[in-house]
Amino acid sequence: MVFLETNMVLFFGRFHPLLVHLPIGFIILAVIFELIAWRKKVDLHLAAAYALLAGAAFGVMAAALGFMLASEGGYNEWALNTHKWTGISTTLLAGAAYFLKINLSKAVWARKVYPVALALTFILLSLAGHYGGNLTHGSDYLWEHAPNSIRALAGLQPARERITLLDSALVYEDVVHHIFEAKCNVCHNKDKQKGGLLLNTPSSIMKGGENGPVIMPGEASESELFRRVTLDPAHEDFMPTEGRTPLTKEETALLEWWILEGAPFDKKVIDLSRSERVNGYLKAVGIGEEKSFLASLDLAAVKREVLDSLMAAGFRVKTIANHSTWLEVGYAAHHKDAMDEEKLRVLAGASENITWLTLSGTALQDHWLTYVGQFPHLTRLRIDQTPVTDAGIKHLVSLKNLEYLNVYGTQLTDAAVEDLCQLSGLKKLYLWQTGITEAGVARITDALPTVKVVYQHPR
Asked: 182-187 long-range CB contacts below 8 Å, 24 or more apart?
């Protein structure tokens, strides 16, 4: 009988996350009504009053269900108590604000206190919602994807960027932790430790939960965590619970592989034995990218005086990423000084470092492209909407690292196809509004099977 009563309490408690949005919505609606009434000078007195009354009423019901849900246990006590008391205070203040609202015309003191009560209700509502979110998703949820500049303002440590290169990735930080964060830590974080289990640090993982260790290094079949994630989803012990997305086949296999390899926390992926199947699973979760052409090179930065000369010539210059020595350079079509050959001579002074170049809409001449053809590390080139012809493309055949080429709106014809086919590194080619025919496009895709050609078929 006690068991059934406990189950009924938890059954009703699970409706708390559903019902709790109603008082939130009604209180916010009351604030919106008051702002509209203040700005537009319209009478929304009753609308605001009824919204507060509904917020207080549903707040009482949400609080009751919250007490039932809390009986399940597994929550951080401080976070739970903070959420509980800010929620209760919000409900009481919403009720008080309603009482003040309906008495505005009867008492001067009510008119003075009401705005303060409404403001405090909204502030407490925000705090209660924030701590409720922490209990549901973990205290790091709000800041998980925030840029490091914003994290610094919030007093948080910079986020570690996940490494995806096979020879550099760490097996725990970049594989296992990534899986836990995505599928497990909603219920096993510092604010909600279901079963007493915390899965966000190596020490807590090895410590296990209220029933003991969940990882037995070298013994996947003896590890409770692995057993739980491989149960039938209908089983009451299956993890993750509460209808959350289960681990994929690849994630489950990688978890098993990690445990069988001794559940290391400080080793690289390449330090462990890996079968071809494991390598395939690693690629499925984003580990195993090959180093890009640019990442494999280490160039010195362009000298300041060279950069100054580029900008003096009218070029826009910026690095393609923070602390990178690779440059993105462009010349605006609407620049007061038209593009000329002398400007490209100046640009050649930084040819080693320029990897993205945009000359769209300029008066680019064919023979000027001899300078561009000498940029050894160019990977993106835009010469769209220029007067370039087939003769100009001949100067670009040396750009073996070029991955992106946009010649939209130029004078190219099928005579340029053979030269375009020599750009063996191409991955994307824009040919809209050129004279290249469908037959020419077919010849390009035959010669370069991996290239994606964006081409406007004739009607």
From this structure: 183/240, 183/244, 183/245, 183/246, 183/247, 183/251, 184/239, 184/240, 185/138, 186/136, 186/137, 186/138, 186/240, 186/244, 187/74, 187/240, 187/241, 187/242, 187/244
Of 382, 377, 366, 456, the closest CA to residue 416 belongs to 366
Helix (H) or strand (E) segment spanning residue 407: none
User: Edge-to-edge strand order for the sheet containing 316-319?
Assistant: 316-319, 327-330, 354-358, 380-382, 404-406, 428-430, 452-454
- Count of CB atoms situated within 10 Å of the CB of 80: 21
Surface-to-core class of residue 438, CB atoms within 10 Å of its CB (0-12 exposed, 13-18 middle, 19+ buried): exposed
Q: What is the mean pLDDT of each run of 10 residues along the chain (459 residues)?
A: 58 80 91 89 88 92 86 70 89 92 86 91 89 69 64 66 84 90 73 72 86 90 89 82 79 92 92 90 82 71 90 91 84 86 92 94 94 94 96 95 95 96 94 93 93 75
DSSP 266: S
Q: What is the DSSP letter of 155?
A: T
Q: 3-state DSSP call for residue 382?
A: strand
Extract the tokens encoding 88: 């209760």
Task: For residue range 170-202, list pLDDT tens digits in order.
Answer: 999 999 988 888 887 667 666 666 777 878 788
Q: What is the pLDDT of residue 151?
A: 64
SS3 348: helix
Q: Note if the pTM is more than 0.90.
A: no
- Beta carbons of 254 and 280 less than 8 angstroms apart: no
Which residue has 């004078």 as its token pair? 411
Q: What is the dotted CATH code of the domain comprising 304-454?
A: 3.80.10.10
The tokens 């029933």 sit on which residue? 211
Tokens of residue 208, six digits: 């296990």
Nearest of 290, 289, 214 to residue 255 by alpha carbon: 214
For the chain, domain boundaries:
2-137, 172-284, 304-454
Residue 445: CB atoms within 10 A of its CB come to 16
Asked if 390 and 413 count as a contact pair (C-beta separation under 8 A), the reply is: yes
Q: What does the chain come to in residues?
A: 459
**Cα separations (Å) of 318 from 333, 344, 345, 355?**
18, 17, 19, 11
